[in-house]
Amino acid sequence: MQLTNRSKVVTKPEMTWVEKLYLPAIFSGLQITIKHLFKKKATVKYPEVKKEFAPVYRGMHVLKRDEEGRENCTACGLCAVSCPAEAITMDAAERKKGEEHLYREEKYAAKYEINMLRCIYCGLCEEACPKDAIYLTDRIVPSEFTRGEFVFGKDMLVEKLDDRIDVSKRKKSYTI
Amino acid sequence: MSIVLFKAILVVALFLISLGIAAYSTYAERKVAAFLQDRIGPDRAGPFGLLQPIADGVKMFLKEEIIPNLSDKFLFVLGPSMFMVTTLMVSAVIPWGMPLEIGGTMYALQVADINIGILYILGVVSLGVYGIMIGGWASNNKYALLGAIRASSQMISYELAMGMSVVAILLMTNGSLSLNDIVASQGEGKLYGFINVSGLNWNVFYQPVGFIIFLICAFAEANRTPFDLPESESELIGGFHTEYSSMKLGLFLFGEYINMFISSAVIACLYFGGYNFPGIEYLGTILPHNIVSILSVLVLFGKIFFFIFFFMWVRWTIPRFRYDQLMRLGWQVLMPIAIINVLLTAFGITLFGN
Q1: What is the CATH number assigned to the segment(s) A61-172?
Q2: pLDDT 10s digits, B103-155
Q3: Do the chains contact at B40 and A40, CB–CB below 8 Å?
Q4: Among A134, A158, A165, B110, which has the minimal tally of Cβ within 10 Å of its Cβ?
Q5: What is the dihedral of CA A19, B155, B216, B332, to 10 degrees?
Q6: Where do the domains of chain A lie?
Q7: Which residues in A lie closer than 8 A to residue B40 (C-beta atoms)?
Q8: How confident is the model at residue A82 (pLDDT cuts 50, 70, 90)?
Q9: Is the interface score ipTM higher than 0.95?
Q10: Do A36 and B38 touch (CB under 8 A)?
């Protein structure tokens, strides 16, 4: 019984004499493979040549500083609230006198931790941040030996003064 | 220089060249495979990965040597050694080039010019299957045994067609079985009786069908794809060398590449004029004899390398035959064609002379 008119009758015709020789088919196969000998290779020699990440790539987080080297984060907690994996925790603290060169506003994050094993790299923290403080970068999260070491604190997340991280590409992709 | 010393040097040189070419065949195989699949292949060890075979060899030596408890230990060790010895023995009768002239005497670049050269090759090559058979059987493993059985039946089936295609060549060289005569006869005379290019009177122009049969049989004898049923990794997890480890496995794999090298050499000698190349006579008149000899050796190796490349090219192009297809091809297709080819050659020789 035919249910649809899409069905096809499959036949397996007897091979002709030429086909039974196999040789024509083998020669056409050899032609195809020899063409590939001269094609451009798909390999990227990884440690020497690194492929550029796409601008939308979401890798390890960074806590940004402003131009004067002060931390942007004010520990408002919006990132932690927006995080679907509940990977972010933080403790807020008040800026003391004489710490103006360290923190941009009166409140700052004394402790800021992201559990890299919980994180799903969705980028919602970055979207929630009102202070341009957290961004996902094209860096790859380093591997560790124990689970505990995957809870990254400020020492791992805040960008170093002498090693600023460029997030201009991420910023652009969000001005839609 | 005494003839014995010269032969001893030649034997050692051939031994080292065979091993070296086999080692670099493994490298070439990986490179060719990679290039045919749009990859780069090994390139970490040394420039372009040229030290890769050495790294592989060291790895093979350092691996743990395992001899299964329930195996026949003597035969288990004998198998790979026998395989290796037989593959290395074949190179003795191949003429590697024109004779060298040292101190006024001519030294043939051939270890032994025996008058049954081609028979010797067929005999020794089929002896090689004993190594596989013994190794596979002594492993006491069903996959190894299956691989060994496949290897032996495949060898027997394809040896016949191979022998028949060689018979057609022998008819053309007045029945001489000596490889030296076969190669020399391709260096003289005119192609088809009127194309006057010295050293181009190759058998492949007279025996294209015989050549294709011989080539297919050589693939089968060397256990190469599409006839690698004895060791088919996907079905028999390595076949006859399933139980082998360390350098004993290395000997099996190595022997296979030497086999490939030797089959290429035999194909070049039987069908592609051996060390002859177009214009060899002309060069002989303007260059010293020894330089032409060395050139002839290089030409032979060029032909051999082309066939080694062809073996690899085919391996990475076509899939494996099914076992019934293999047997049908050997007995029902190649055998009749080879016999008809012999008859036609005989007719041709009686009608047109040589």
Answers
A1: 3.30.70.3270
A2: 777 777 777 778 888 888 888 888 888 888 888 888 888 888 888 888 888 88
A3: no
A4: A165
A5: -30
A6: 61-172
A7: 41, 43, 45
A8: very high
A9: no
A10: yes
